[in-house]
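Our preliminary data section would be incomplete without showing what the modeling component actually yields. Below, a chain of 250 amino acids is followed by its predicted structure, encoded as C-alpha cells that our downstream tools consume directly.
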Amino acid sequence: MTELWEMDHYRADFTILGNLDIIEYDLKSANTSIAREYELLPEAKCDELDALPKKKREIKVGLLKRDDPIYAENEKLGFIAAREAFFRKNEIKDTDVIAIKRDAIFVKKYLPYQQVGEHLLFRIKNEYSGYLNLNPVEVYQRRDRSLYTSGINDDVYKGCHERWFGEFLSLVMTSYAIGGRDTALDHIRKFYDEYKWLKLDPEYYREFNASSRFSYKDGTYSGIEWKEDLSELNILYNQKIITKIANFIL
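Predicted structure:
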C-alpha cells in the first residue's frame, strides 16, 4: 500500500469543506534544503543556488536534473524522505490531508512541529477556511473570503474570474460555512436561473478552467467576448460546475 508521503501529487476525496482550519505547510527553499539534508550537492553549490532569485534558481535546478539523472532521482527520493519525516514527526493521518503538491502539504489542522530535520523546515505558507474540489481545479477560501485556485494561474484568475464566477464561488462557500446547506442552495438556485437565462455579465460565462476562454456553439473559442448576442455562447461548462456544487451540498 502506498503511503501518502510517497506521492508528489495527491488530492483527497473531499468535495466541499467549510468553517475549519486548512493549513498549507511549505518546505522552505525546497531544492537546496533537500540537497543539504541528504548531502546531494556540495555546500558551495547550495549556497550558489540560494543566492539566485527564485525563478533563476528553479531554472538552474531544472538544468542540473536534466544533465544528471542520478541527481534527479536522488532529489525525488529526498522529497519523499522529507515528507515522511514531516508526517511521522507530526503523526499526520491520511484523513488529515487535503492535498500534496510536492513540497506543499495541505492539512485540516495546525501541527506542532515545523522543523523536522536539520535543514527541513515546513513553514506555514497560507491559512484557509474553506475548500471546494472542482476537479481539475481546486478552490481554497482564505479567511477574508478571497480565493486561491489551484489549476488556474493567479493572474488569469484575478483578471478573468475574481469579480465574476469567483465571486459566486466565494458567496456559496461563505454561505455554506455560515448559513449551512439550505442557505447555500438558495444562492445557487438564484444564480443558476440568472446564468441559464443569460442575465449576467458576459464574464460569468468564461470557462472556469486553465484556459479561461469563451466557448461558442459553433465550436470556436475566444479570449474575449466579442459577439453581441450572448445566445451564441456555449454556457455548458460553468453550468455543469454550478450543478456539481449543488449536488455536493445536497
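The radius of gyration is 21 Å. The first strand starts at residue 9 and ends at 11. Preliminary results of this kind motivate Aim 1 of the renewal.
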